[in-house]
Amino acid sequence: MLLALGASALVAIALLSDLIFPRLLEMWTRYRARRRRAPELSFDPGRERRAEQRARELLRSCVNDEEWAMYRELGFIRVWGGRNGRSEGGDGAEYAYLIYPHRPIVAYLAQTGRLLSEYCVAFPDETRPYGSVRLPDSDDVLAKWMALTGDEERLITTANMHLPGRQVDPAQVQRDLWRLSRWERARMRVAGAGAEAAPPN
Amino acid sequence: MKPGHGEVLIAEGDVELAEEEQRLIEEFRRQLDAGLWAAVPVADGAGRREARMVHRFEDVPRDADRVIFFPRAAGGS
Fold first, then answer.
1. DSSP strand E in chain B: where?
2. Measured between CB atoms, does A68 come within 8 Å of chain B?
């Protein structure tokens, strides 16, 4: 009797092993995964500050003096749209972009300041050298600047386009455009005063 | 460009020296194969600055003093 029961149990286990074994294996894998300690990726403010400092130097060496001053004093850089084949200063440019660090690129009409769209784009480094995919602020701005001035169409095609106001407050963008116009007027006044003060050649 | 690090020097050399140029070409390809984009900052005489995206080493101007590699753009949320 006992032998018959034992044999039946063995047969039942053999028949059910295809169902039971994978489930047991999965449970064991999950248990191991839960027990495994995640590597500690502590945030190091000193490292981040040094990275940002290096990124600022790199940005400064790439953009022109006006763009660097704009970023340093206003916190964003304006890039004219459709740069290919246009002269500097936005002559004839119908639209421009505002580049903010780690925020969407905002497109607007140069003449009226009307906001056109937001382009959400990221430059993730999946190697996560320090546990993060996020570039320093100034590197993010430089990456956007290079991608926009180097191949505007490709960047815009890659980005996710949204209506204005999805992530960046339109009122804040309008304030930034107002600040930008005041800032440019002030620079022109200073440049004009400098030219008048300079002795004629 | 690296998160948590900023600018990292990957390789340097003189393109006029064949051996060094070959090393630069190999490193250039390695970076592009890793999925990075490459750009060369350029300036014209009028003070205009912009980047030139390069897809092949031959596209890099011979007088360029650097090529910047940065992560490929992806649509953000």
1. 36-43, 49-54, 68-71, 74-75
2. no
Residue A128 lies in a domain: yes
Distance CA A162, CA A95 (A): 16
* Inter-chain touch A54–B6, beta carbons under 8 Å: yes
Q: Do A135 and B76 touch (CB under 8 A)?
A: no
The model's pTM: 0.79
Report CA-CA distances (Å) from A185 to A169, A188, A189, A190, B49. Answer: 25, 5, 6, 9, 21
Number of domains in chain A: 1
Judge whether A68 lies within some domain: yes
Identify all chain B residues contacting A139, using CB atoms and an 8 Å cutoff. 1, 6-7, 70
pLDDT tens column, A46-98: 888 999 999 999 999 999 999 999 999 999 999 999 865 554 455 566 999 99
**Other CB atoms closer than 10 Å to residue B21's CB: what's the count?**
14
Residue A69 belongs to some domain of the structure: yes
**Residue A41, Ramachandran bin (φ over 0: left; ψ between -120 and 50: alpha; else beta):** beta
pLDDT by residue (tens digit) across B16-46? 999 999 999 999 999 999 999 999 999 877 7
Query: Does some domain include residue A176?
Result: yes
| CA closest to B48 among chain A residues | A88
Which residues constitute the domain of residue A160? Answer: 62-194
